[in-house]
Write a structure and sequence with these properties.
The complex is a heterodimer. Chain A is mainly alpha-helical. Chain A is 80% helix and 0% strand. In chain A, helix 3 runs antiparallel to helix 5 and helix 5 packs antiparallel against helix 10. Chain B is α/β, with parallel strands linked by helices. Chain B has two domains: 222 residues, P-loop containing nucleotide triphosphate hydrolases (Rossmann fold), CATH 3.40.50.300; 63 residues, Alpha-Beta Plaits (2-Layer Sandwich), CATH 3.30.70. In chain B, 38% of the residues lie in helices and 27% in strands. Chain B has a six-stranded mixed beta sheet, sandwiched between helices. Chain B has a four-stranded antiparallel beta sheet with strand order 2-1-4-5, covered by helices on one side. In chain B, helix 3 crosses helix 4 and helix 4 runs antiparallel to helix 5. The chains are: A mainly alpha, B alpha/beta. Chains A and B meet through helix 1 and helix 4 of A and helix 2 and helix 3 of B.
Chain lengths: 249, 328
């Protein structure tokens, strides 16, 4: 019971912090709007998808995936911030297990990612992306699944990094390439072979494909395959993240 | 109440990286209801000892019991019975004072029915009730420290560990924090183990003081007894650098530090004349002579031949504060 309470407590703190930074919530929506509105409209005529789907609808799942990715990876990486803030120490000396702390932290990250994802989903709806009602119901557990996997990477990275100094490096060499190679903005079928291989290695590719299938019914990769890979990926990053967190802090 | 042992440390040792001996085979007992001080320069092993006692790090050898629980075998029970105030701030500065306390109460399993009442009690104790719903970022250093003391008390700990409770605070705030600490002992019968490198702090607050240097306890007694062990007063002669070597030879039982000669004498008023004459006889030029009643600093100096360096706020903490100002 007390461990559950601990998970809830850590989660609660993430929520309070998230809702307190209202300007950050608004700020984080600017990027998706730019992508959908400016990039979506301007590239509409230049990119040939070869399918019966307008470009904005094509990238909408990609932009949602991007939002989930940024939000959840950042919240995982915020473990470093907690260390520097000192609050991590307060949590670690409490009579609760480290697994509860990392679980609360991960669930907090996934919840914020879910909220952000749904905000962007609503935005795309306003901007004319058609979404059917059934996909709305399926998309929530899928976003949570995707988000948890990415929080796991964030926690793992944070456990390995000593300070925020390495953060920019991670941002430029991991997060951005993962996003651009994922087929969020273009169909991976059209890529040259060597890039295609990298895209297939990029776990975010399967996140995007899964979301795209749910939202538009279109996907480059078999949807069951995507789902299995995402599920497996989430399980393993959560385990790795929890292991490293436990060991390193 | 006083008399029962609440912390018992036996041959506690911590070696980092197989070569750096941070704490070297120390043993002592702390009695229920006393304020026990760990006094020593930075790097002496004070924080390492506290970290071991509060189960944050494992001892390399030896052990201890806190509230009769073994720190190695029963860490969770130990954690439940102690309160901690770290050297560096460990508050979440985006949360309000009350939220910080609430999270702590939840993590330590304080029952829901008691939580609200207890939070109000501890806020009242440190006089922060009117700031309960303010975000901690807006608090001054002294207020944050008080809030941390309040937080350390929420779960009714039997022992409170304070690691450098007044580091980096201005003199007025320090006095204020001292009052709270003394009050805790008097009104709430909490045993307190604190570390400090401030001599006056140890002198003012502690019932007993352990002086620690290079991981060893080199003296342990009441501040009064420690000072009395110096056989009386100190005469301090300021001399010129060129006379240092000569002074070391002439005044055999003295300590020379920074071109100052420290002489322990029974009655400084009577003996200063003799000392000055002696200096003159051997051609040691005395710039200034002072008499001082013994302080814990003299005890430390007497035992180690060094003074306790004045610490400044650690670099990390300094950076953190700067970052806060920038608003990240």
């Amino acid at each position: 019971m007390s461990e559950l309470e601990a998970v809830y407590t850590v989660w609660l703190r993430e929520m309070i912090r998230y809702f307190r930074a209202k300007e950050r919530i608004i700020g984080s929506l600017a990027m998706p709007i730019f992508w959908l509105l400016i990039f979506g409209s301007s590239m509409r005529t230049s990119v040939s998808l070869g399918i019966n789907l307008d470009y904005t609808s094509f990238i909408a799942p990609g932009v949602i995936a991007m939002t989930i990715m940024f939000t959840s990876m950042f919240s995982g990486i915020s473990v470093i911030w907690d260390k520097e803030l000192g609050f991590m120490k307060e949590m670690l000396v409490a009579p609760v297990s480290r697994i509860s702390i990392v679980t609360g932290k991960s669930l907090g990250g996934a919840t914020t990612a879910l909220i952000q994802g749904i905000l962007v989903l609503s935005l795309s709806f306003i901007l004319g992306v058609r979404i059917n009602m059934i996909s709305l119901l399926i998309i929530i557990p899928i976003i949570i699944l995707i988000a948890l996997g990415l929080v796991g990477i964030g926690v793992a990275i944070a456990s390995l990094l000593e300070s925020m100094e390495g953060f920019q490096l991670i941002m430029n060499f991991i997060i951005m390439p993962m996003f651009f190679l994922s087929g969020a903005l273009f169909p991976i079928n059209n890529l040259p072979d060597w890039l295609k291989v990298i895209s297939y290695i990029d776990p975010v590719t399967y996140d995007v494909e899964l979301l795209r299938y749910v939202m538009t019914g279109f996907s480059n990769i078999n949807v069951m395959l995507s789902f299995i890979i995402v599920l497996g990926f989430t399980c393993s990053t959560l385990l790795i993240g929890a292991y490293l967190f436990n060991k390193r802090s | 109440m006083i008399g029962l042992t609440i912390i018992e440390v036996k041959n506690l040792t911590k070696i980092f990286n197989k070569e750096i001996i941070a704490v070297d085979n120390i043993s002592f007992k702390i009695k229920k209801g006393e304020i026990f001080g760990f006094l020593g320069p930075n790097g002496a092993g004070k924080t390492t000892t506290i970290n071991m006692l509060c189960t944050l790090i494992r001892p390399s050898s030896g052990g201890a019991t806190v509230c009769r629980y073994d720190i190695i075998k029963e860490p969770d029970k130990v954690r439940k019975c102690i309160g901690l105030v770290f050297q560096d701030t460990t508050l979440d500065d985006r949360l309000t004072a009350k939220e910080n306390l609430e999270l702590h109460a939840r993590l330590y399993g304080v029952q829901k029915s008691k939580r609200e009442k207890r939070i109000n009690e501890v806020l009242e104790l440190v006089e922060l009730k009117d700031r309960a719903n303010d975000v901690v970022k807006t608090f001054s250093g002294g207020m944050q420290r008080r809030l941390e003391i309040a937080r350390g008390l929420i779960h009714y700990p039997k022992v409170l560990f304070l690691d450098e409770p007044t580091l980096g605070l201005d003199p007025q705030t320090r006095k204020h924090v001292w009052e709270y600490i003394l009050n805790l002992k008097k009104e709430h019968e909490i045993t307190i183990m604190m570390t400090t490198h401030y001599m006056d702090e140890a002198d003012e607050l502690c019932d007993r003081v352990a002086i620690i240097d290079y991981g060893n306890i080199i003296a342990l007694d009441t501040p009064k007894n420690l000072k009395n062990s110096l056989k009386g007063d100190t005469i301090i002669l300021d001399i010129k650098d060129k006379d240092i070597e000569k002074a070391k030879k002439v005044f055999k039982n003295s300590k020379v530090f920074n071109s100052q000669v420290f002489l322990s004498v029974k009655n400084a008023g009577k003996e200063i004349k003799k000392v000055l004459e002696k200096a003159k006889r051997y051609g040691i030029e005395v710039i200034e002579a002072n008499i001082r009643k013994p302080t814990l600093n003299d005890v430390f100096l007497h035992l180690t031949g060094r003074e306790i360096r004045e610490e400044t706020v650690s670099l990390k903490e300094e950076l953190k504060r700067r970052r806060r100002i920038r608003g990240h």
